[in-house]
Amino acid sequence: MRKKIKAIFLIFFTTSFALLSAQNISVSGTVADETGTPLPGVTILVKGTKKGTATDFNGKYKISVAEGTTLVFSSIGYKKQEQVVSGEILDITLIEDASVLGEVMITAEFGQKRAERGVGAATQTIDGATITESGRENFITALSGRVPGLQISSTSGAPGASSNVVLRNITSISGSNQPLYVVDGVPMNNSSFDPNGMAGGATSEYSVNNSDFSSRGNDFNPEDVESITVLKGAGAAALYGSDASNGAIIITTKKGKAGKGRVTFSNYIKLSNAYGYPEMQDKYANGARGTTNYYYTSKYGGLYPEGQQLYDNVDAILQTGVQQRYNVAVEGGSDKATIRASFSQLNETGVIKTTEYERTNLSLSGRAQITDWLKFEGSMQYTGTENNKVRRGTESPLYRAMLWPVVDDMSNYLAEDGLHMRNPEYYHDVDLLNPLFDMYNNKYYDESDRILGNVSLNFTPIKNAFLRAQVGWDVANQTYVSSRNPYYAYNNAGDGSYSLVNANYSDPSINILSGYDNKYFDDKLSVSAQVGYHQLENKITRASTYGTNFIDASFQSINNVDPLTIVSKQRNTKRRVQGISGQFQVGYNNMAFLTFRARNDWSSTLPKENNSYFYPSIEGSFVLSDLDFIKDVEAISYLKLRGSWSQVGKDARPLQIDPELQTTGLTGGGYKYGFTGPNRNLKPEITTGQEVGVDFRLFKNRVKGTFSYFETENSNQIIQGFRLSYATGFVLNTLNVGTFETKGWEAAIDVDVIKTENVTWNLGVNGSHGTSEVVYLPENVTEYYNAYTWLSGNIRTGISVGNPITSLTGRAYERNDNGDILISPTSGLPLTSSEWSNLGNREPDLRFGITTRLKYKNLTLSGLFSGRLGATVVNGTKRYMMQRGTSWESVELREGPDQVFEGVIKDGNENTANPTTNTISVDYGTYGSSIFTGGDEDWIEKDIKYIRLRELRLAYRLPDDILKKSKLLNSMNLYFVANDLFTWTNYSGIDAVGNAVSAAAGGVGGEGYDVMAIPNPRSYSIGLSIILN
Amino acid sequence: MKKIVIIYILIVSISSCTSDFEELNKNPLAATEVPTPTLLTSATQNLINVNSGLGYNKTMMFYSQQWAQRETTTRSLYGLSAEGDWSAFYGILPEVMEIINLNSGDDKDRYSVYGKNENQIAVATILKVWVFHNLTDTWGNIPYSETFNNDITLPKFDKQEDIYPALIQELKDAVALIDTNASGFSTGDLMYNGDMAKWKAFANSMRARIAMRMSEANPSLAQTEVADALGSTIFTSNNDNAVVAYQNEEANANPLYIEFLTQAWTFIAEPLTELMNTYGSGTDSSPSDPRISKYADPNVDGDYIGFPYGLDTSDTFFYAIDERSLPNEMTRAIDFPSYIMTYSELLFIKAEAEQRGWFGSVADAATTYQQAITASMEQWGVSGTDTNTYLAQSDVQYDASNWKKYIGEQKYIALYSQGGNAWSEWRRLDYPVLNFPMAATTNATEIPRRYFYPNSEGAVNGDNLAQAIADMGGDTFSTRMWWDQ
Fold it and tell me: Which residues lie in coiled coils (chain B) (predicted)?
């Protein structure tokens, strides 16, 4: 009993003590800059203690302290300010500190912060809000146009399409050119599934030209992004080693903010419409030589009869795409620990019927200061996706819809029995496939479940030293299905096929870093050193099954195929890279820095003798604006010169060393070799890069700019599928061949043109330029090409010494010494050379982006333009339409006068002083454009100028005085975004920035090939985001 | 203390796995080292598919005018299609070379369970020589000494005159390795089922073939080697023939069977039926050579009439299918074997050696010649009575003063179904007399004396190819072999 009383007393005592200390008052207010813009993330500390808080997104804070306490307000880039608490409201205006602004920290390798001053390579940081506000469902496309030197090409406008990302320039002829994606220090798999090598995967429907599976980077929820740092070039990401030889994109996720817990809710709805697809002529019917005949698919027939009903069959495959995303995030915590959880659901239907993309994201992240010397951080993201798609290229619905005779209503795709594919009216030949039958009756989708997680411990055993250990894991299970209804075949007479692939990958990584930094000689000399151990594994297991001969024609399942036709394959690969890294930096007076970095990797994909490779780098920076005589120049707020030299090695893909034996169906069960031979001498690729640059801020930071010039040499290129003499015993091999150089520049400038209390107008322009030259290929190779780029006529990406690696080659016209085109004396048509020659360069002279933001009180209008100048594009769509007579141009040609091609007759006199000028006229009137649809040269459009309004956004933020009245509502934003609204270009095809090859292909990619792709649709979205306290 | 524990944990976790990187880079699901019999099976199957297939062999059956094409006659008129043949020959070698590697490497004991290492190497070497001999006889100079070397991606072309002695040496080395008391391949040997004595006989018989082929180019070496080979263990009956049967299943079927499942465009050529029918008093309806009924099917009238050789595609339609002879049904059977070298051929070599005074006595040549024909008759299942009737005919009886014609024609007939071999012997002996088709494409101006190089080689090994062409004096159908000058 007595004990009980004691306990009650104790409880009473402690509670009243708590009440006593609660005599504090609650102070709140807004922290803003000189223009009145609220400042988020300002640290507020009770002077002399560690107690404190920080401002939220809207610059608001709330803290409970005793009256008379001094609060210290600080934020990077602003002068520290102290205020004594004298009431419940305390609004603060922070003054920018030009000199302190230099202390910007960037997120470097492994999530480590580095002072921007000391970095010698080009980096750029994009904040999460920019990504979420872009109206894009994936963060990769959202970056487009914002970072100079970052090239992003979507392979189509279809939901879930892969995107090919290149930082600076292409660095590998046949390997991956994608940068490394890193989430909170852990590499994120961004592969695109390549169905080649799967069971039944040899057919064209599985090629990288005709199929496209999502890039796994699309999985990431843009709402979870706190910031993205782009480390350009090998030098910036040197410590990441092999995988980052193409640069790195570092994503820092939101970890929750301290202070009062809050809930963020956002939602948008987006409507999209296809536009810009080619217009088909509706004047002449199918046929030849002016006679209508629906047995022909080309349209050189007679005029459609009066009153003939014509159908827009391209329209029949299209619909209005609808996209919706909901996102809820909860966060909160104390100054010791914060936590954030979010849920997001994205549903999208594309502009092509039956295309769908669904994504569910769940994430949990947080950080905790466990003791003074131990900090924990962790995050975990789950992503589930489902993507129904359509094929591309010559298997695409657009291609097939354009073949369908317009006198027939293609949308009626089923035969009367409701099972078979209907053949078009008027047309009794049976080799036309109805794309709608394909879309509704065949399966073509992928599904994925993925978890990306990491935990890290940061340990500070003694002052100025740290030890950080991080374990991350990226695991996913994916299913890919592609099937064909038996009736989706010529004459409805197919067998039906079903292909099922299950792929798992598991990428664990470990990074352990330890460092020490200190200052000496009155803080004049700073020294920091860091060593690290790194381990990464990529394990892929894939099992595939393929079968044909459906037993029940209408039932699509692997269980419905003839069991005797089932073929299965399994393929597992594993790669492990272990590395140690070191970094040593000395700084003088926080003004001049010199950094040495080095890494040694051991990779399992290289032969034992060559599997250890070391590569160093060095970088330096000098903050000129800290020099006395520049400090006084009012106009210059910050000026830094930087430079770096670096080397990065890159290993091969797994299983390239030993040839594999395959079973044969031969007597006695034999084993035989495949086509690819062994290479036990494979060496790592080496990328050597150097760059110089300048970063500056002028006029009290109203003008910010950066410029970099870089040169890179890529040697020992590992080329897969390199053709060899049969006499070596193998047709193909993986070899270290090829060296090429790239150079170029990047620049960005950002200006606050107007900066007043109510109105601010910011304008940013960025641009980049890069050229490349192949300097070495083996002597016997005059042209190396990737077969998958051979997409239109004889045009392909041919790599030859002395030319850029993005060169287009094709069969040009024959010409005489004078340069005149040679004409055949019999047909009057230009003659085509049998040799391939260089026809152009896909890489534009300039890639640029323009951002603008006009803010008036609570209204913000912003825009993003991106564009290219001087690119060369292959207009495969137009060529195809000309061949078939489906374009208006072909009608013009047909109705116009007979053509006499300019040139000289190849009659033996072509190289004499008096060549015979061609006078032979070609009868387009009778034959239509089919008589001559042009050579490769004619379908290459040069000097393409292109600018697209990627994003136009109007946002309204609820004014503070309204918000203040609400206890619950912390902020509310309403916005309207239009994406891909307009394009201005001198290009005459569908999509000047199209990419006809799935990102899975790697190598030189398919940018600049416009072949029957679906361009990015025009879309409008309306959205709302609310933060509740 | 806590800090120390944490440091300890970190250090322990670092010191993990620098272990077996090499294992990681091996595909656990794909074989990289397999039992050697499976390689032998695969190589043998590849070999017979060249030797009796629809690619190289069929082309050579046309060039030697033993078969004729109906409908599309591009190939028999010397249209270009060398690509696949070049790769098919070289494609036999990876498995063959791997047998040699595995049996001579550090782990060779592991493979001795499938047969004595040396015996396995010998078998593989014999097959390797067969491949290179056919390659050089088809193209002339070819990559040989620098092939299958991981360090050489651009192999040079060796001269034929250097390849011949090297091949002969390889065969001698192989024979030296053979231990007939020890086991050969325990399984997977489709040709001799592990009987090393027979492999030895094949190696020596093939050496006689190769040596005899340089009879005009290097007679002294030819003489030495032919004589030496004939004096060693060689074929002594048709039971020793190098022959591999096809199987009674479509995956391993006789290629001609597969072709005839869908089309009947390949006929016996008229020059062959004429030659075989008209010795002595023979006619198309009563042919003098009894083997014709084994080679060819009778036409609708019961006669053996081949299809005219070398017609334009459009002209072939003037000849009714049922009036001409197709390859005999037996040779189109699913399991009809592939003949690589026969006893009969060896006896013809022996007869020629005797005739040339290189071996035995000149007087024996006539007898050996008859034995050779008899062996061929026996091989094709002709009765002894029919054989003797045939041998008795005046045009068949050996005439030593015109021995090239007699041996040439009879060897040509006996080599039926071995197109490449028949073509080579025709090039060497210039018998029987074959006519150049008037409708031939402009690629050729005479019956080809060799094959042109494939385009792909120029793309991947251009400099070496250019050197080879310069050495040979051209790359045409008329460029002569070293042994056929």
Answer: none
Q: What is the rounded CA–CA span in Å between residue B3 and residue B11?
A: 12
Domains of chain B as residue ranges with CATH: 37-250+336-484 (1.25.40.390)
Contact A488, A433 (CB under 8 A): yes
**Is A850 in a helix, a strand, or coil?**
strand
- Give B-chain residues touching A661 at CB under 8 angstroms: 30-32, 34
- CATH of residue A604: 2.40.170.20
Q: Tens of pLDDT along A758-771? A: 899 999 999 999 99
CB atoms within 10 A of CB A358: 17
Do the interacting molecules here have an ipTM over 0.90?
Answer: no
Do residues A212 and A392 make contact, with C-beta atoms less than 8 angstroms apart? yes
Whether the CA torsion A410, A415, A419, A420 is positive or negative: it is negative
Tell which of A371, A682, A728, A736 to mutate to test the B interface (max B CBs under 10 Å): A728
Phi, psi angles (nearest 5°) of residue A215? -75, 140
Q: Do B25 and A728 touch (CB under 8 A)?
A: no
* Residue-level pLDDT at A1: 46
**Closest Cα of chain B to A507: distance in Å?**
14
Pick from A586, A595, A588: nearest CA to A616: A595
Residue with tokens 């656990």: B28
Does any domain span residue A925? no
Q: What angle do CA B365, B367, B368 make, to 5 degrees?
A: 65
B256 sits in which H/E element:
helix B255-262
pLDDT in tens, A661-719: 766 655 555 677 777 777 777 888 888 989 999 999 999 889 999 999 999 998 888 87
A658 and A683 in a common domain: yes
Q: Does B302 touch chain A (CB under 8 A)?
A: no
Instruction: Please say if the pLDDT value at position A16 is more than 50.
Output: no
* Cβ neighbours of A846 (radius 10 Å): 14
**A133 and A31 fall within a common domain:** no
Shortest distance, CA A727 to any CA of chain B (angstroms): 6
Please tell me whether residues A82 and A223 are part of one structural domain: no
* Contact call for residues A483 and A554 (beta carbons, < 8 A): no
Give the CATH number for residue A70. Answer: 2.60.40.1120
Domain range for A72 is: 23-97
Query: How many domains is chain A partitioned into structurally?
Result: 2
Residues A58 and A129 in one domain: no
Quick check: B24 and A575 CB within 8 A?
yes
Cα(A210)–Cα(A393) distance, rounded to whole angstroms? Answer: 5
* Nearest of A804, A973, A888, A882 to residue A298 by alpha carbon: A882
| Integer Cα distance of B477 and B474 in angstroms | 9
Minimal Cβ distance to B45: which of A373, A578, A670:
A670
> What stretches of A369-434 show up as alpha helix (H) in DSSP?
397-403
Instruction: State the amino acid at position A333 in one-letter form.
Output: G
Count CA atoms closer than 13 A to A986's CA, side-chain side.
11
Q: A471 — phi, psi (to 5°)?
A: -125, 130
State pTM to two decimals.
0.76
Pick the last residue of a domain from A75, A97, A119.
Answer: A97
Contact B189/A at CB under 8 A? no
Cβ contact (<8 Å) for A725 and B251? Answer: no
Same domain for A91 and A191? no
Long-range contacts from A288-295, C-beta under 8 angstroms, 24+ separation: A288/A927, A288/A928, A288/A930, A289/A926, A289/A927, A289/A928, A290/A926, A294/A405, A294/A407, A294/A424, A294/A426, A294/A427, A295/A427, A295/A428, A295/A429
Q: Which of residues 34-63 of B touch A (CB under 8 A)?
A: 34, 37-43, 45-46
Chain A within 8 Å of B188 (Cβ-Cβ)? Answer: yes
